[in-house]
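Thread: quick sanity check before group meeting

JM: Hey all, I'm pulling together slides for Thursday and realized we never actually wrote out the predicted structure for the chain we discussed last week. Dropping the sequence here so it's in one place. If anyone has concerns about the input, flag it before I start.
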Amino acid sequence: MRSASEIARDVREGASSAQREVEIALGAIRERNDELNVFLYVDESGARAAAQRVDDAIARGDEVGPLAGVPVALKDNLCQRGIPTTCASRILEGWRPPYSATVVDRLLDAGAIPMGKTNMDEFAMGSSTETSAFGPTRNPLDPTRVPGGSSGGSAAAVAANMTPLALGSDTGGSIRQPAALCGIVGVKPTYGLVSRYGLIAFASSLDQIGPLTRTVADAALLLEVIAGHDPRDSTSLPEPAPALRGHVEDGVAGRRIGVVRELIDGADADVVASVDRAVEVLRAAGAEVVPFSIPELRLGLSAYYLIAPAEASSNLARFDGVRYGLRVDGDDVAAMNEATRTAGFGAEVKRRIMLGTYALSAGYYDAYYGQALKVRTQMIEAFRRAYREVDLLVGATTPTVAFPFGSKTANPMSMYLSDVFTIPTNLAGEAAISVPFGVGENGLAVGVQLLGPGRSEATLLAAGRVLELAEGRS
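JM (edit): ok, ran it. Output follows.
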């Protein structure tokens, strides 16, 4: 499949049309969606209508935006007015929001064509898309394996050539981890760079929306479109979207990059080998690459699994059977609320709500949640010290390649460890990118992760492009 920029260029120049591109995407979705369970809802009529509007605008000579006619997949926790939005949960089955997320409006303004909603771990709580109430998504590279999570459906949509672009959300690695396991590019932007308005919250201080694409250039293009200040999001950075596309070819010459021991330790040998080779590529491209250690990162997993469930227990209290979504009747309001939440939430969501409620409860707040916040502060300070010495950091995205279905579901800690290398960036609110680099077990994709301070997306994309070129990717 052509890149997003190529599709938009062809549509604008008349070599193709938005309607044609939509039909190509619909054909690809029909071909593999039954096998892979990528899309929970395909908006055929809406996509065709949006494509017609783009083609009509071009015929009138109007400006149509940098994503003219480009199909895009949306994770099912992003609200789109009138389109079913479930967070892959029974508790929201059939709910159609009365408004759209800011990122969806910006996509439409840029001429993109939303194709529908992709599968995910329920309420973004998972690392394999196996907690979805509507069945797991399968990895297009090997359907016996998971695509990662929680944005597994969005990653699979791009990897299966259903759409050239997708949006996911990243709370502890949920863009980068599936990007690595599906062999595509995934970017976790700086916290506040992309508006969270219309993203159904999991953990508000950690969540961030970002791109999943086949190329670094497409990631830069998509991030430029969706980034920038939004007054409807109180955490939105008060600045315009950064210029990114012009920096993709900047390279890494003169950059100082730290190879982080804590972002490699415990990874499979083939993953470590890919990181080692990436280091040599960066060095050959003119970067000074040095060994680096940030011991505080080892505390990230423990802090995250107190902070994120605590915030989730608060955010998910709104799903009570009263205002929207599922309602299971009971003898009184309390019984109705309990019956609704018991029937509507899956096991992983219930586990995290209970963990979070316990951590916030009287007598335990200081011992658990309060301590986790102190660890988070230590990690933020550790990153700040690191970026005084280096421009970027490099390590593995995930400890392993895509794993077989069911291999980690019986042991939650084993599943949580899938995100051990990605969680620190969310806790610090900084930026990171996963780029496919090399292969591991059974020829499956390996992702190399590049991390940078807040607002370093241009530098990260340039470094990612160096790795992409070394792999012979266009």
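AS: nice. The chain has 15 helices and eleven strands. The domain at 4-247 is CATH 3.90.1300.10 (Amidase signature (AS) enzymes).
JM: adding both to the slides.
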